[in-house]
């Protein structure tokens, strides 16, 4: 039964999250609240690990949640649920592609989806910042180390020589600093 729930939940996430992996994050926050399969802190960790590992972030997060919930079969089922809508849509669109793109209504629909994707990604960014930078347990608790790291990386990324560094260097620096914060 849990496998069916995983499939259905991630099918809905895959169906409604247009705009890439980060667009799935608001849906995953909702899934966390509804099912209790993972916490908001777990989601923040999933995002960090998914960003640092190869592959699509949505698939990585589906794998993580599915595996944490029901082992290897759960990971497989969650990923299948997530990608099913995309596969079906691609199969349908590929058959109608030549006539579909010429239709002004279809072009308008895709044009209208752009702001929705931006909104979903912005909501994901605010959610992740909220989990990472402060905690609200009846009172506001600021995570000064995380705030200092975020400000430091923001400033460093705008320095002329630092801009030339590959983005992997920033991930490695953040990982080292994060490990140091955990040790303190």
Polypeptide structure, described:
The protein has 184 residues and is mainly α. A hairpin with a 3-residue loop joins strand 1 and strand 2. A two-stranded antiparallel sheet has the order 1-2. The chain has helices at 2-16, 25-35, 40-52, 57-100, 104-133, 144-157, 167-183; strands at residues 134-136, 140-142. It is built from 7 helices and 2 strands. Helix 6 (144-157) packs antiparallel against helix 7.
Strand order, main sheet: write it out: 1-2
* Coarse structural class: mainly alpha
Overall body shape:
globular
What is the mean predicted local confidence, pLDDT? 83
Extract low-pLDDT stretches. Answer: none
Strand content: under 5%
Number of helices: 7
End-to-end span in angstroms?
43 Å
From N to C, what is the helix and strand string?
HHHHHEEHH
Largest sheet: 2 strands, antiparallel
């Amino acid at each position: 039964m849990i496998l069916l729930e995983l499939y259905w939940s991630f099918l809905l996430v895959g169906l409604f999250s247009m705009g890439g992996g980060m667009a799935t994050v608001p849906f995953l926050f909702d899934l966390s609240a509804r099912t209790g399969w993972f916490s908001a802190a777990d989601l923040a960790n999933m995002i960090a690990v998914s960003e640092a590992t190869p592959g699509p972030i949505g698939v990585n997060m589906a794998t993580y949640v599915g595996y944490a919930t029901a082992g290897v079969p759960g990971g497989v089922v969650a990923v299948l649920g997530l990608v099913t809508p995309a596969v079906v849509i691609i199969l349908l669109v590929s058959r109608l592609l030549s006539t579909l793109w010429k239709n002004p209504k279809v072009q308008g629909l895709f044009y209208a989806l752009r702001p929705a994707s931006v909104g979903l990604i912005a909501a994901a960014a605010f959610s992740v910042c909220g989990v990472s930078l402060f905690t609200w347990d009846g009172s506001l608790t600021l995570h000064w180390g995380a705030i200092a790291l975020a400000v430091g990386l923001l400033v460093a990324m705008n320095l002329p020589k630092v801009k030339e560094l590959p983005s992997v260097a920033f991930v490695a620096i953040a990982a080292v600093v994060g490990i140091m914060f955990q040790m303190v």
